[in-house]
Amino acid sequence: MKIYVTSVPVKDQDKALDFYTQVLGFIKKKDVPLGEHKWLTVVSPEEQFGVELLLEPMAFEPARLYQQSLKEAGIPWTSFAVDDIEKEYQRLSTLGVEFSIPPREAGNVMIAVLDDTCGNYIQLMQEL
């Protein structure tokens, strides 16, 4: 058994696709129309046949409430690994990405938390 797809809820799939590809650097993998929404996934350019991240539309009210509650509490929806958190922080900051937590040590990792502009905080993590 392996993880094939995981998801992050987004308020606007097109805006999310732009942010996750043009800013974060992921690659669009699938874009399948499904009525008013679509099955829209992105992958890491380093693992194009790895786990897909579904940019899942917020069409379920309890999910919207959960997303909002996490964000209000400052809790990231998910975490992405990076090789050099300081370099990634500088690159993303230059692109206008807002961080709620700049890079800092947290045990045996460095973390930073960014706003994905789609309703979520996303944690970046670098193992030390």
CATH topology: 2,3-Dihydroxybiphenyl 1,2-Dioxygenase, domain 1
**Tally of contiguous helical segments:** 3
Helix fraction? 25-40%
In the sheet with the most strands, the strands line up as 1-4-3-2
CATH homologous superfamily annotation: 2,3-Dihydroxybiphenyl 1,2-Dioxygenase, domain 1
Shape descriptor: globular
CATH architecture group name: Roll
Largest sheet: 4 strands, mixed
Number of domains: 1
Task: Evaluate the radius of gyration.
Answer: 15 Å
CATH class category? Alpha Beta
Q: From the helix content, strand content and strand pairing, which structural class follows?
A: alpha/beta
What ranges have pLDDT less than 50 throughout 5 or more consecutive residues?
none
Distance between the termini: 29 Å
Give, in order, the helices and strands.
EHEEEHEHEEE
Strand content: 35-45%
**Total beta-strand segments:** 8
**Mean pLDDT across all amino acids:** 97
Domain VOC: 1-127
Organism: Thalassomonas actiniarum
InterPro entries: Glyas_Bleomycin-R_OHBP_Dase (IPR029068), Glyas_Fos-R_dOase_dom (IPR004360), VOC_core (IPR037523)
Protein name: VOC family protein
